[in-house]
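Homework help thread (please don't just give me the answer)

Our assignment gives two proteins as sequence + structure token strings and asks us to describe the second one. The first is just a warm-up. Here they are:
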Amino acid sequence: MADANDRAVWQVGGGPTQRSYVNQLIEFGVALIRPGDAGEWNAAFSDDDFGGSGVRRFATEPGLGDIVLLRSGQSIIHAVGLIASQYLYLPQFDDVNDWDLQHARRVRWYRLPAPYDFGAANPRRFGRINVASVIGYAHNFTQSPPTDWQTEALPSLPDPEPELSSSPQSIAEIVALAADLAGSYWDRERFGEHPCEDEMIVHYAVPLLRALGWPPENIAVQWRSIDICVFRALPRAPANIEFIVEAKRLGDGVEGALAQAQGYASALEVTCDLVVTDGLRYRLYDGPSGFQPVAYANLMCLKQSSEKLFSRMWRA
């Protein structure tokens, strides 16, 4: 372990401000980076397999006891930590706020009393800091009391959630489509621009609803500006709404659609379930409980808990 005055200082991203996973990193004592779906890093891989050098550097360069700053957005620092493990590959972090973050290091974090904008941090997902003022701050912080956090036991990691042994037969074709195409969507050279919201609604969201038993007359697309409105019965009127589906562009994070969906429900004066999606991921919020998140499914990697979402969205 490096001497306190010789510790390298690194930074790791905690997601953009509007789609942060800072709290999860602190809660479980980890630093995580993507793309984890590409598999566990080893020296046989090239940097191209992981979208650049970030994963290789994360896996090989930091030493035990090095300092790491937890950042969101461009330069907002939320916590200071000490690296407490070698590189790990943790499958339980395959879907954190829609990010595949399986590349891991254990970290003892100390959350700052308030986020601080250095204005000079490195916006990359992971990298070494070379700005003298930031390095000085990090060293002074770790050498100033309290210091007991630097030796505390690491928090327990979450258990990996079991995968769904077999998807419902009715949605098997959609799940297979997601498996075939999801990786291609991110390959700009081969695929081009990411598909827009409307495309994902057409290819995934509406077919999923049809597979869950909803007939076309009960599925309204762009009804009163709502992406998808599902009615339990005709006529298509607010009193008959079963749930509202609001979509986001692939990569924007489904949670970002919640406020817009709530606005539609409020304007219509209805208390119904809300579903937010990017076509591949679906999160359901329970209307009667004040829109608490109660079910989730990722078509690219179905877990046992996804059965609850399909059950809630199934036409009774």
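The one we have to describe:
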Amino acid sequence: MGTGIDGAKIDKAFLDFRGQTLLHRALETARAVCATVAIVGDPARFASYAALKNEAVVPDIFPGCGPLAGIHAALMQSSAQLNLMLAVDMPFVSKALLDFLFTTAERTDASVTVQKIGQGWQPLCAIYRREFAQSAEQALREGKYKIDTLFRSISVDAIEAPQLIAAGFSESNFFNVNTPQDHLGVKQKLP
């Protein structure tokens, strides 16, 4: 959620970015590399969009527990071994970047292939093996909702800045639209 100019709450998934919503852009980017794509979240929140665009919506099994619950729900629903998790608020993620992530993930048996930029992980633009659902479920049952905390106890293939740069990507690919100022600024940046 974000705040509009008049102070009203705005769902950032439905913010316009170059003639399409951030949600539509994320789905189309994911669809370029994935055979099956679904929206993960509250079905009521996405009901109108899902009906209009004929999109599947996967509800959280552990509602109200944040992004880890969404990852868990998606993995429980999936039959694929490698699964892309992509946040709706990253408009500069490209097909080329996602191809790079999948190629990297295919070369390892790590549970998660994820970028680590400086001290920060990018867990909502990462490839998860289905087995991660077990670790996620255990953490959720214990009331532990931080995704990157789990990275300490599982096998992770961390893609750091030098590897990203060598592949032609940068930290700006992971820019998040979190505030009205971000939304205004992102409209002016190059993808």
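TA reply:
I won't write it for you, but here's a hint about the kind of observation we're looking for: Residues 1-8 have pLDDT under 50 and may be disordered.
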